[in-house]
Design brief:
The structure holds two protein chains of two kinds.
Chain A lengths: L7 H30 L2 H4 L14 H9 L3 H32 L5 H11 L8 H10 L7 H23 L5 H8 L4 H12 L1 H17 L2 H7 L8 H9 L6 H30 L7
Chain B lengths: L6 H30 L15 H8 L1 H33 L5 H7 L2 H4 L2 H11 L6 H8 L13 H29 L3 H9 L4 H29 L3 H6 L11 H11 L3 H32 L4
Helix pairs in contact in B: 1-13, 3-8, 3-10, 8-10, 10-13, 12-13
């Protein structure tokens, strides 16, 4: 389109601005990676040098000794996020279907309450949650990190899945009804298979968010080292007087690898799904 | 059509598990927070004290400082996120080769755990060996090492920068999606009439994405108000309280010092302030929507 043409000068301007913008976004990652490659004595030398000689991947092998439970932390992160995702879906699928398709009393009020939950982060409710989990004997278990995570992700999940379900044509369900299928059968055999792309989007969004937000519940509700997710596990080493920064950065980058891979494979669908609600039909 | 179960009953059966779960893990603790705020609950004791916690809070000048600091934190950080997000979305929406790649590259701060991003920033802010202090010295802006997180003012603005860094990708993404949803016919009609880029941006893009922009602003404001991890990891609310927002203060009081009652009173104040803020905001949102003719 003629309208979309840019002059050479405009193009240079756009790329320059994009470079500055992405520079701000990506600089910390670049620096984390460079730090992970540099020997410690180079890091702790003044004056500052961005680049250095003797780059090596040593930190990536030594970090497993410095942080003996690193593998366990990464596994815990994946396990907790996986459990949160599974449980959230169990609650979200039926509720989202009801909100998308059925009429019932207090429908809008209930939906409004779900959205209001977004206003509280876990931090506001930590005190009673701490006491509830203590009473239930869940402190210092995986459940102490899974249960609150699920509660705060249900509203987002319902919101995302509902807007997806609303786009599926009703005709198929109505045809199944006419043929005498029960409501539950229709939901399981007709609606769910059609909703698979939407379910993937919700799962990935919930998984990534659960992976990103494990820190607070972990440091508050869990003291058992073997159960800590990656951010809480590493935090202990960051707090030390002598931080082996190259190994910490190596461990951080290694720990985010699983979620980055998931994101890279599914980013196209994820972006489309997450922003669907933002775009007018 | 055969009806085994009335629609309303079936619907409630489907919604009930989620409602009950949220009730136990969110609503009940919320009520419990309100109750605790009228007690002097500690680790193993608790007795009713009436409005004492609130009276203490309202009579302390520290409370007002913290509230003002929290709102300053929120407005500054959200403002920056929206401005940067708008700029970023406009850039990524430009029809130039490579924009699909740029779109992916914007998102890592949002995808990785918040805490991990903060570990990176901790190192960047390091005075003797960190990148920022090092670069500023090289360019002669700083005479010597500068510990960004050790002084009140610089610690506060450093935490803002990190918060903006984590929050900008999502704002960018949603605004970009809204921009791509704007009908091309509008632009073409304006273009045929000879409207320039800036005019099209101001008179078509901005009004069309306004609903998304304002709802993004509210969501972002609530999250930023409650932003805990970033401040906790970078400064733990210090130095000398310079980065202590309400949520950090609540955490320190309740979890750090086991003063559950006093912490609960702070949590209730957070909820009230956020509810007030949202109501005022929605009031203005209605006006904006009417102005731009959105339902």
């Amino acid at each position: 389109m003629m309208m979309d043409r840019y002059s050479l000068l405009q193009k240079i301007g756009i790329y320059l601005a994009v470079a500055i913008f992405l520079g701000f976004i990506l600089l910390p990652f670049v620096e984390m990676f460079v730090v992970s490659l540099r020997p410690l004595e180079h890091l702790f030398s003044s004056p500052y040098r961005f680049w250095g000689e003797n780059f090596s991947f040593d930190a990536y092998s030594r970090m497993w000794e410095t942080v003996p439970l690193l593998g366990r932390y990464i596994w815990n992160s994946i396990f907790i996020s996986g459990m949160v995702t599974g449980l959230t879906l169990i609650f979200v699928i039926p509720a989202a279907y009801a909100f998308a398709r059925l009429e019932f009393p207090f429908k809008n009020g209930t939906l409004g309450i779900f959205l209001a939950v977004n206003m509280f982060t876990g931090a506001v409710l930590l005190i009673p949650l701490y006491r509830v989990l203590r009473t239930l004997g869940l402190l210092n278990t995986y459940w102490a990190m899974i249960v609150p995570g699920v509660a705060f992700l249900i509203p987002t999940g319902i919101w995302l899945l509902r807007s997806y379900l609303e786009k599926i044509p009703r005709e198929l369900e109505e045809a199944a009804f006419v043929d005498g299928a029960s409501r539950l059968y229709t939901l399981r055999r007709v609606v769910l298979p059609l909703a698979v792309p939407g379910l993937i989007v919700v799962s990935v969004a919930v998984f990534i968010t659960a992976y990103a937000q494990q820190f607070l519940f972990a440091i508050t509700f869990n003291q058992v080292r073997e159960l800590q997710p990656l951010p809480a596990g590493l935090y202990e080493f960051i707090g030390y007087q002598d931080v082996t920064w190259n190994e910490m950065m190596a461990a951080s980058l290694t720990g985010v690898l699983p979620v980055m891979l998931i994101f890279l494979f599914l980013q196209k669908y994820l972006v489309a799904g997450l922003t669907a609600g933002a775009v007018k039909e | 059509m055969r009806r085994a179960l009335p629609e309303a009953w079936f619907a409630w059966l489907l919604v009930a598990p989620a409602v009950i779960f949220i009730g136990v893990i969110v609503a009940w603790p919320l009520a419990e927070t309100v109750r605790l705020s009228f007690t002097d609950a500690k680790l193993n004791s608790e007795s009713y004290v009436g409005f004492e916690n609130y009276a203490d809070l309202l009579s302390s000048s520290k409370t007002y400082e913290t509230v003002i600091r929290t709102f300053y934190w929120m407005f500054l950080s959200v403002g920056l996120k929206l401005v940067l997000g708008l700029i970023g979305a406009t850039l990524l929406n430009a029809a130039v080769p490579g924009r699909a790649l740029f779109r992916v590259l914007v998102m890592p701060p949002w995808v990785i755990p918040i805490a991990i991003g903060c570990f990176g920033w901790l190192w960047l802010y390091n005075g003797h060996f960190g990148l920022i202090s090092g670069m500023l010295q090289r360019f002669g802006i700083l005479d010597g090492p500068f510990e960004f997180l050790a002084y009140k003012t610089s610690a506060f603005y450093s935490a803002i920068v990190t918060d903006v860094w984590i929050g900008t990708p999502m704002v960018t993404l949603f605004l970009l999606a809204a921009m791509q949803g704007v009908s091309r016919d509008l632009y073409e009609a304006a273009w045929v009439d000879g409207a320039g880029r800036w005019y099209r941006f101001r008179r078509i893009t901005i009004p069309q994405i306004m609903p998304v922009l304002v709802s993004m602003a509210l969501l972002s404001a609530i999250w930023t108000f409650n932003s805990f991890e970033i401040i906790w990891i970078l400064t733990e609310g210090g130095p000398r309280g310079a980065t202590t927002t309400l949520i950090v203060d609540t955490y320190k009081t309740a979890i750090g010092n086991y003063k559950f009652g006093e912490g609960a009173a702070r949590a209730v104040i957070i909820v009230i302030l956020l509810a007030l803020f949202s109501l005022i905001y929605l009031f203005f949102l209605n006006k904006v929507n009417r102005k731009y003719g959105v339902k």
